[in-house]
Amino acid sequence: MKELNELAKKILDELVQIDKPLLVLAGPGMGKTYALAYKIKHLVYHKKVGPKEITVITYTNEAAINMRKRISLKGEKEIYVEQSLQPSIICTMHKLGNRIIKDNYLKLGLEREFKVLSSGYLKQILMADCAQIVGASRKDAEETITCRQNGNCNKVSDLKCKICDEYIKLLRKFNYIDHDDQILLPCKLLNENKDILQNERQKAKYLLVDEYQDINYSQWELIKLLSGDKPGNLFFVGDDYQSIYGFRGGDPKYIRNFEKDYSPECVVRTLTISRRCPPSIFKGAFCMAQKYNGGYDNLLNEVKFTEDSDANIKICNFDQQNIEADFIARKIREIGPSYEVLVLVPTLDYAFPIKRALKKRYVDFTCDYDIEKTDLYLINVLLGWLKNPSDNFLLRILLQKIIDRGASDIPAKQTDFVGREDSRTKREIALKQISDFWKDIGKGKTLYLKIKVLKNNSSFRELLNIISELRASYKNESTSCFIPKMIDGLKIWKDTSKFSEEINSLIEEIQGLTIAGGECNVRILTMKKAKGLQADYVFIVGLENNVLPRKNADNDSKAEDSRLLYVSMTRAKKELYLLHSEKRDKNITKTKTSTTERSEFVDAIPTQYVDVYS
Ligand SMILES: [Zn+2]
Predict the structure, then answer these.
(1) How many angstroms does the Cα of residue 213 sit away from the middle of ligand 1?
(2) Ligand 1 centroid to 254 CA: how many Å?
(3) CA of 144 to the centre of ligand 1 (A)
(4) How far apart are CA 232 and CA 262, in angstroms?
(5) What is the Å distance from ligand 1's center to 142 Cα?
(6) Cα of 166 to ligand 1 centre, how many Å?
(7) From 161, 309, 328, 427, which residue has the greatest number of CB atoms within 10 Å?
(8) What is the Cα–Cα distance from 153 to 144, expressed in whole angstroms?
(9) Residue 171 Cα, ligand 1 centroid: separation in angstroms?
């Protein structure tokens, strides 16, 4: 252990001296973020670089906060940097981009108080509306979502980009930008204005980027622009096996192209001391990911482990999801509250039986919560719109929610998957009528005024009744009248069990937030949120084909799903359980059958690293 620590220090000391574009590759638990902090320390104290010349980019806000905390800890001498010398910019690329836009909003034709569209759900609705405005179907919008992030967004003759174009016009009309704009608009500014470019490059004279594997095309371009003529001061860390944000346009090809992008001067180094996983867990996860992603042929021989535990990966098969859930609860009870436990699920639907089993055994836990799918969210949207009836976007969400859950005469969302042809057409036509209103909303005309025009249209009668009655009772009556109207009109909380489930989940979440890192050591999360976390014990649920890998996966999505599993598996410090159940509720599998098949990923783990229980 001591020898390994000395070796690690020697490697880092050499690494931070490199004055060329540097990419540090390191697997999970191999000190990527530490290397970044080490570099900050080196720049500040050895090269005397000022706080205004270093920019540190992290992938999430949480990671930015953690980085600042880490370098502020006096106890960690090797990376401690006193407050006044710390880099002034440690943030996500979106935050950096937003600041550049704010400084130059006039050049972009924005008003000073521009707003940022942050709801992914609203973005989907607006994209689909815009698809219909340009004469396409709502479904066509699905593929358009990542168009701008992927950087293919200039061919306006393309149907997809006509949708993009219409969508951007719609956002700008209401003085909005979205998360993609937060990167794309700064790129435009830097490309077109030499003075802004010089100014921003000065602030990013030393540019340090964490999680380089997750960047998408536009983020790659922004980094290129900022690094400019002196790429000697670039310091990137990442691991292409941990690239899991394809749904945001993230693509490991940028990390794989690093040498091409920054040749001939650039250097790539690999960190190979593993400080988190027991050897079998890391090796098993690695071999599985390698089968689908290739590369790193000699890495397994080079990695050294500070943990010499001989714990193998535990693979458990169950007949039914309830037995599986009970197994997890029993194990967690045995483990006891002094260890950290992560339960990782493909989607939050998988969490329900586990939550029930944990409650039965009086185990405290926190669970992720998808607020946009709840009735509470719908109420919040409704109240927001009632308070501010000129907020067209809130009303648009409200309309979609009422329609989708089948509370009006317009066919519900499930029609798109299981409905008859004529119902599908009816739904598409009704939504087209709403979409078309965007063309002349603005300048005093609200969506509400436009939509009232439809009152004689039979499809809309019910929908309009619901919203006008809610408006009237909100204005004139007491809560004792308003609340029953709301429950009835929006069709929320039809039974008390759903009501209590939602309230419980919300309170669990709030409590979890307040005691994070405190006494509650069991967390249930979706796998996509596992990055950056670690725990003593990790349970991964849903190792089934059509889930992991996803249904009809081509080679690229299979590779991405294998990376998601790789990231999930390598969170474990002591023990790792991979779970599979032969039967699952259809409302979890979202298919016609409740029978499942064990994931091919499990078979891709070499048998010497696993113990099978059934
Ligand atoms: Zn496009």
Answers:
(1) 23
(2) 20
(3) 6
(4) 9
(5) 12
(6) 10
(7) 328
(8) 9
(9) 15
Q: Is 437 exposed, middle or buried (0-12, 13-18, 19+ CB in 10 A)?
A: buried
Angstrom distance (rounded) from CA 356 to CA 361: 9
Instruction: Report the share of the chain in percent with pLDDT over 70.
Output: 98
Q: Could you write out the DSSP letters of every residue in 100-160?
A: HHHHTGGGGT--TT-EEE--HHHHHHHHHHHHHHTT--GGGGGGGTTTTTTT-TT-TTSHH
Per-residue exposure over 511-520, b if at least 16 CB sit within 10 Å of its own CB, e if not:
ebeeeeeeeb
610 Cα to the center of ligand 1, angstroms: 46
Distance 549 CA to ligand 1 centre (A): 28
- Whether residue 238 contacts residue 213, with contact meaning beta carbons closer than 8 Å, is answered with yes
Q: How far is the CA of 153 from the centre of ligand 1 (A)?
A: 4
Report how far ligand 1's centroid is from the alpha carbon of 160 (Å): 5
User: Separation of 147 CA from ligand 1 center, angstroms?
Assistant: 5
User: What is the average per-residue pLDDT within 503-518?
Assistant: 68
State the distance from the centre of ligand 1 to the C-alpha of 172, rounded, in angstroms. 16
Kindly state the average pLDDT of the residues 134-147. 90
Give yes or no for a contact between 398 and 467, defined as CB atoms under 8 angstroms apart.
yes
Residue 151 has phi, psi (to 5 degrees) of: 75, 15
329 pLDDT above the threshold of 90 = yes
Distance 214 CA to ligand 1 centre (A): 20
Residue 496 has pLDDT above 60, yes or no: yes
DSSP track, 14-39:
HHTT--S-EEEEE-TTS-HHHHHHHH
Helix (H, G, I), strand (E, B) or coil at 264: coil
| Rounded Cα distance, 433 and 132, in Å | 9
Ligand 1 centre to CA of 151 (Å) is 8
DSSP 607: G
Residues with Cβ–ion distance below 5 A, ligand 1 = 147, 153, 161, 164
Which pLDDT does position 512 carry in this prediction? Answer: 63
Cα(253) to ligand 1 centroid in Å equals 20
Q: Which residue has the tokens 């980027």?
A: 209
Comparing 387 with 249, the larger pLDDT belongs to 387
First to last CA, the chain: 36
| Cα–Cα nearest to 27, from 249, 366, 320, 290 | 290
CA angle centred on 99, ends 97 and 104, rounded to 5°: 100
- Tokens representing 95? 């935050």
Are the C-beta atoms of 445 and 390 separated by less than 8 Å? no
Distance of CA 262 from the midpoint of ligand 1 (Å): 28
At 387, phi and psi to the nearest 5?
A: -75, -30
Q: Ligand 1 center to residue 183 CA distance, Å? A: 15
For 410-444, write each residue's pLDDT tens digit.
998 888 777 788 899 999 999 999 999 999 898 77
The CA angle 459-460-463, to the nearest 5 degrees, is 125
Radius of gyration of the chain (CA): 26
DSSP at 445: B
Q: Ligand 1 centroid to 165 CA: how many Å?
A: 7
